[in-house]
Design goal:
Blueprint lengths: L8 H7 L7 H22 L6 E5 L5 H10 L4 E6 L2 H13 L6 E5 L13 E7 L8 H11 E12 L2 H15 L9 H12 L4 H6 L7 H11 L2 E13 L5 H6 L9 H8 L2 H17 L3 E12 L4
Parallel strand pairs: 1-2, 1-4, 2-3, 4-5
Antiparallel strand pairs: 5-7, 6-7
Helix pairs in contact: 2-3, 5-9, 6-7
This protein binds S-adenosylmethionine.
Length: about 300
């Protein structure tokens, strides 16, 4: 009998680290991502009896929300590379009594071999392409599995800009004479560069930061889509106050270590105390600014 893995890096993040394993923060995150799922679903233009593919479904967010909104005639294919997450999504579907409407397909977004040509009316995806190495092949796969006239609707974070902010911080820190200036910034850089690349060379070598919103449009054009529409939303707003213990357990994306892991592994005891004294009041008072950059793309497969 093959041993089933209970968790992997993807399930660890989606089910725990995204919200610092805290119930209150999880509810806040869930409210946010449900709004995003709704907007993605609006772009998919679903109707009764249609079939939707939710690529990189995670805990089933978009697919399950689609069933909630469009009822029992909708069929949903949920794909993911993470077997633990697919099992979790299947469990949620059973709990809700909608498992008969769902099919679970394990595999990467750029090789959807479990799904036939022209099998679905809509492809929805939220925060997944960022992690796919070959984004143009993935986009061609979405085109292949869509019926003529079918809709693609996706929302992707533009994490490259986060990396550029860390690059700017590194340039600022590196330009200072050793030991001069505020000791907080080198420590801030140590933490941030554990989560995002700190040079443009590193950023262009990583799938999560080597593309921008215009590249998404190009991938869609190259795959053959028509009626392509992209909106970039940038919000720079004070982050909601978060308890320090929850904040340190969370991380901004699945490939990023938590602040706690960085503090444990890369900070001395004194550095840690100094850094916490400066950062903690900002985190707990909601005076920290958070930037969110999301590219919303919709497109249609030609040949209706
Ligand atoms: C940030 S989570 C988003 C999950 C879900 N779509 C949501 O909106 O909550 C990223 C998801 O992409 C999946 N993933 C990562 N790399 C992938 C790949 N190459 N192909 C398909 N899914 C992938 C992960 O397992 C994870 O479920």
């Amino acid at each position: 009998m093959t041993h089933q893995q209970d968790s992997d890096i993807w399930s660890e993040w989606v089910l725990r680290r995204r919200h610092g394993d805290d119930t209150g923060y999880r509810q806040a995150v869930h409210a946010d991502v449900t709004r995003y799922a709704d907007r993605v679903l609006d772009g998919a233009r679903l109707r009764d009896g249609m079939t939707l593919a939710d690529i990189g479904t995670g805990d089933g967010l978009v697919g399950m929300r689609a069933i909630e909104r469009f009822g029992p005639s909708l069929r949903v294919l949920m794909t993911d590379i993470s077997a633990p997450l697919l099992r979790h999504a299947a469990h949620r579907a059973t709990e809700r009594g909608v498992e008969g409407q769902c099919t679970f397909v394990e595999g990467p977004a750029d090789k959807l071999s479990g799904i036939g040509d022209a099998a679905v009316d809509a492809v929805a995806m939220r925060a997944v392409l960022a992690y796919v190495e070959d984004k143009s092949t993935a986009m061609r796969e979405f085109y292949r599995i869509l019926k003529p006239g079918g809709r693609l609707s996706m929302a992707e974070p533009v994490l490259r800009d986060e990396a550029f902010e860390v690059c700017a911080l590194k340039r600022m820190v590196d330009a200072r004479p050793p030991g001069a200036g505020d000791a907080f910034f080198p420590l801030l850089l140590r933490w941030r560069s554990a989560q995002f690349p700190d040079t443009e060379e590193k950023a262009s070598a990583l799938p999560i930061t080597n593309y921008g919103e215009r590249d998404l449009v190009r991938f869609a054009i190259d795959a053959g889509f028509i009626d392509i529409h992209l909106e970039l939303h940038i919000d720079v707003v004070p982050a909601d106050p978060i308890a320090w213990d929850v904040f340190v357990e969370s991380s901004p994306h699945p490939l990023a270590p938590s602040l706690k892991a960085v503090l444990d592994e890369q900070f001395t005891k004194d550095e840690r105390a100094f850094f916490e004294a400066r950062l903690r009041p900002l985190v707990e008072s909601g005076k920290q600014f958070g930037a969110q950059r999301i590219a919303w793309l919709t497109a249609t497969k030609s040949g209706h």
